[in-house]
Amino acid sequence: MDATNAASRAAQMGKMTPTGNFNMEGSGVKSYSGSYGVGIGVPLNNGGANQSSLGLGASVSQNFGASNGYRYSTKPDFGVDFPPLDATWQKEAKTVVGSDQISEPGGIFIDRHNTLFIADQYNYRILKLEYGSVKTTLVMDGLDYPDDLVIDSEGTMFIAEKESLTRWPKGARSGTVLGRAQWLLSVALDSKEEYLYVTDYMTSYKLNKTSWSVAVDENGAIYVAKFDGNVVKWKKNESGKGKIVVDQLGEQRGISVDSHGTLYIANCGGNSIVRVLAGSKNATIIAAGNGIGDAPNQLYNPDDLAFDSYGNLYVSDYGNSRVQMFKINIKSSSNS
C-alpha cells in the first residue's frame, strides 16, 4: 500500500472512537490505545507509516499503530489449497497426533510442504509433524498459552499467545512482540499480505460481544465467529455491525474461508466440522457430528481445522487431546 492510500485509509477510519487497548511494540511502532475488543488489524507492509486498519464498528477493532514495514505471505486460507466445493470425506478419521504427544491442542496450520503445526497450548509450545511422520518435533517452547498461529512462505511464524502477538523468524530461538492484549484466541493474515487480524477474548467478553476466531477472504472481507453461534462478515472498508452470514450454529471455534466465500467451521457445540456455501446460511456437516466421544467418527470440542494440499481435513480435537485426519474421497472433478 502506498503512502497516499495509507493516509486516505487512516483519515477514513480515524473518525472512529474505540475503547480498550492493544499496544504495538518494536522499532518504528507507535503505541495506540484503542480497541473494540473482537478483532485487531495490524498493518504489516506500510513501511512504518502510521495508518488505521479496517474499522469494523462495535464488533471488531480498529487500528493499532504502525509495524516495522515487514511484508508477509499468506496463510493458505484464500482458495489456494481448498478442496472442491462438492468434496466429501471418509466417515472415520485417523489420529495423526495423539494424547501421548499433546494436551488440549488449539490452532493448527499446514504449510506448503504439508507439515502440520500445532499450538500445544497447555504444554506452552508449538509442535510440528512432517507429512508422513508419526512423531512430532518441538519447534519452540516456553510460550504463554499459545492458542493459534500462522506461517508465511519464508517460514516466519506469528503466534497468538495469551497476552501478546509474537513474530518468530524461521529458526529463531526468540520472538518479537508485535502487540499486547488480554487474551488472544486467533490470528489470520489477509491475502494481500498487509494485515494480521486477531481476536481478544477478554476485551470482547467485557463488551458482551464475545468472539472466537477470525478469517479473511481474498477480497479483504473479514469473518468473525462468535460464541453466540453466528458468523459475522464485513466487506472491505465496511464499518458498522456487519452482516450475519451464519446464525445459530452453536459454539464455533476455528473458521476458514475459500475464494468462493465458502466457510469451513469447527462447530465446537455440535462436535463436528461444517461447510457453509456462500450466500447460504445452511451448514452441512462434512466430518463427525455423531455426538461427543473419542471414536474415529466423533470429536469432542473441536478447536480448529486445516486442509493439506491433497484436500485431507485435519481437526484439532481439543477435548480428546488429539489431531484427527479425515481423508478426502477422490471422486470430484470440480475445482474450488
UniProtKB/TrEMBL annotation:
<dbReference type="InterPro" id="IPR011042">
    <property type="entry name" value="6-blade_b-propeller_TolB-like"/>
</dbReference>
<protein>
    <recommendedName>
        <fullName>SMP-30/Gluconolactonase/LRE-like region domain-containing protein</fullName>
    </recommendedName>
</protein>
<dbReference type="InterPro" id="IPR001258">
    <property type="entry name" value="NHL_repeat"/>
</dbReference>
<keyword id="KW-0677">Repeat</keyword>
<dbReference type="InterPro" id="IPR050952">
    <property type="entry name" value="TRIM-NHL_E3_ligases"/>
</dbReference>
<dbReference type="GO" id="GO:0000209">
    <property type="term" value="P:protein polyubiquitination"/>
</dbReference>
<dbReference type="Pfam" id="PF01436">
    <property type="entry name" value="NHL"/>
</dbReference>
<dbReference type="GO" id="GO:0061630">
    <property type="term" value="F:ubiquitin protein ligase activity"/>
</dbReference>
<dbReference type="GO" id="GO:0043161">
    <property type="term" value="P:proteasome-mediated ubiquitin-dependent protein catabolic process"/>
</dbReference>
<dbReference type="GO" id="GO:0008270">
    <property type="term" value="F:zinc ion binding"/>
</dbReference>
<feature type="repeat" description="NHL">
    <location>
        <begin position="292"/>
        <end position="329"/>
    </location>
</feature>
